[in-house]
Design a protein that fits this description.
heterodimer, A: mainly alpha, 0% strand, B: mainly alpha, 2 domains, 2 strands
């Protein structure tokens, strides 16, 4: 099973997208924690 | 062809394909047998060999009963696809629970069946006792069931065992995954398994490193990484220890799990599109938009409500205890970073209501997640907006409303109606579960929480699910997990076919 460059970029895009979403939620949590 | 002959042909088709599904699942028991041998667990090894022999024999009997179907896969109709999926899941529940029963970790066969259905449907509620001392073989089996259940057992078995595939798509839809990534079903199944296996390797590696950083020994860290990844990706929620994700006492481990259970709740069509270079789909897709909005709102509302209580003094604990659980509920994963009774005793009615709504909405269609799905929420919401706009606009104007789901799709009334009907079915299932819970003596909040957890295939518990709960509630929860996972149609088709068959036999007897 081999992954093409496009597929690897796709996988990283999904992970990065979710990390951004989680980071936004953490920023909002920080606001409420103060 | 006479009516009675049609019924016999249908029964043979269903028996033939269900037999292959059972045979395929019996072969999967080789993995826990190998795990048992590597771990030198001889008694669990025997448990699995006995279970494998029973399952393989029954599968073979089913195939032989329907042997006339061989070479006639074109005679498979939609009703057969639905019935095979629905029947296979029930049969597999009874067969796959045998190792649980033999292990002595369940009080009854009903409890074992409950755990297996919970695994298959990627729910994650547990009645197995003393999880901390389970054999590696049984732990492997529990997590395998949830991983395979998430991708689709019927499709897996039929894709890789049965050579003829002309009726394949019908089984696929029957299992609640009506998506065609490529024109043939084998190709679609292979893509789904490729995506899942790539993530399995990547996720296991990341969690293995995190486990090593926590101080686990390499072998133990690897097993924990496999279990937690399989649970996260399948939005299952099983863990090898009683304390679930809290066992690791690690923000890093929880954060990694969060990333994978969110990605696991996405539609396989979306994964495929993004992996094919269509990265804009990640932002334009109606399901992602729907999930981002509802998950954000639910998390912020829960954080706002619980930050006032003083239970969680800093941002990190708020994030780990509140945001983690809300996202776990919304993606229908069921990993819990709180003990069950803490929801009831600390979160208050507002917090519980947010969790109930999040659990019912669930993840994406054609994913491993449950609930009534972001796609249907998005379609119904857009349908309401379109209706309001039609009311406010001139009677002469004709406007076409669209939404984006892999491609631009016209928002037709039939589509909105179908989505609303499924949502209503889920709400009825949830309503009956809540009512039954209150009849059994649980509070309204507890009953609603647990009913939404089983209906949405989530797995978070408020304390109702235990070996001591009434048998009637266990049976209803099994039924609710099953119906929620197969999205009603398959089960309705199986019941309809059974009633029709009985009616025909009854009429023939009267003649």
């Amino acid at each position: 099973m081999r992954l093409s460059k496009t597929e690897i970029i796709g996988l990283l895009t999904e992970i990065f997208g979710v990390l951004v979403f989680l980071a936004v939620l953490f920023a909002v949590t920080l606001l409420f924690a103060r | 062809m006479k009516n009675s002959e049609i019924s016999v042909r249908s029964a043979e088709i269903i028996s033939y394909y269900a037999g292959f599904v059972i045979l395929g699942t019996s072969m999967l028991m080789v993995i826990p047998v190998v795990t048992a041998i590597l771990s030198r667990e001889w008694i669990p090894m025997l448990d699995f060999i006995i279970s494998m022999a029973i399952a393989a024999s029954l599968g073979l009997i089913f195939v032989l009963l329907g042997r006339r179907t061989k070479g006639h896969s074109s005679s498979v109709q939609w009703k057969h696809g639905f019935a095979v999926a629905a029947l296979s899941w029930v049969m597999l529940m009874f067969l796959c629970s045998i190792p649980y029963l033999l292990s002595g970790h369940t009080y009854s066969y009903l409890d074992a069946c409950f755990d297996v259905m919970s695994g298959f449907t990627t729910t994650g509620l547990v009645l197995t006792q003393d999880l901390d001392h389970l054999s590696n073989a049984l732990n492997m089996w529990r997590h395998m069931l949830t991983f395979i259940g998430g991708q689709g057992m019927v499709v897996l078995a039929l894709t890789f065992i049965v050579k003829e595939s002309s009726g394949g798509y019908k089984f696929y839809v029957g299992e609640g995954k009506d998506i065609a990534l490529v024109p043939n079903v084998k190709g679609t199944a292979r893509i789904i398994w490729k995506i899942s296996i790539v993530y399995l390797l990547f996720g296991t590696l990341v969690l293995w490193i995190a486990g090593l950083l926590l101080g686990l020994n390499p072998a133990s860290s690897l097993l924990h990484a496999i279990y937690i990844f399989e649970s996260a990706w399948s939005t299952g929620g099983f863990a090898p220890n009683t304390q679930n994700i809290m066992y690791y006492h690690s923000f890093l481990y929880e954060a990694i799990a969060m990333v994978f259970f969110i990605i696991g709740s996405f539609n396989f069509g979306l994964h495929y599109a993004v992996w094919q270079g269509k990265r804009k789909e990640f932002v334009r897709n109606i399901e992602i938009q729907s999930f981002a909005i509802t998950a954000f709102l639910a998390s912020v509302l829960a954080v706002a409500a619980l930050s006032k209580t003083g239970l969680y003094p800093d941002a990190v604990s708020l994030y780990r205890r509140v945001v983690f659980n809300v996202l776990s509920a919304h993606t229908t994963t069921g990993f819990g970073s709180l003990y069950a009774r803490q929801f009831a005793l600390q979160w208050g009615d507002g917090g519980i209501l947010i969790m109930v709504i999040a659990m019912l909405i669930g993840g994406s269609a054609c994913s491993t997640a449950g609930g009534f799905k972001g796609l249907r929420v998005g379609i119904v919401f857009k349908g309401i907006i379109a209706d309001v706009k039609k009311l406010l606009s001139s009677e002469r104007s004709m406007r076409v409303y669209k939404f984006h789901y892999m491609k631009d799709i016209v928002l037709e009334d039939g589509l909105v109606r179908a989505s609303a009907l499924i949502i209503i079915c889920y709400m009825v299932l949830f309503g009956i579960g809540t009512l039954l819970g209150t009849f059994c003596g649980y509070s309204l909040a507890d009953s609603a929480f647990e009913a939404s957890s089983v209906t949405g295939n989530v797995g978070l518990s408020i304390g109702v699910t235990s070996a001591s709960m009434p048998a009637v509630l266990k049976i209803y929860y099994i039924f609710a997990m099953y119906l929620g996972r197969l999205e009603f149609l398959s089960v309705f088709a199986l019941i309809g076919m059974a009633i029709t068959g009985v009616k025909r036999i009854w009429k023939r007897k009267q003649i």
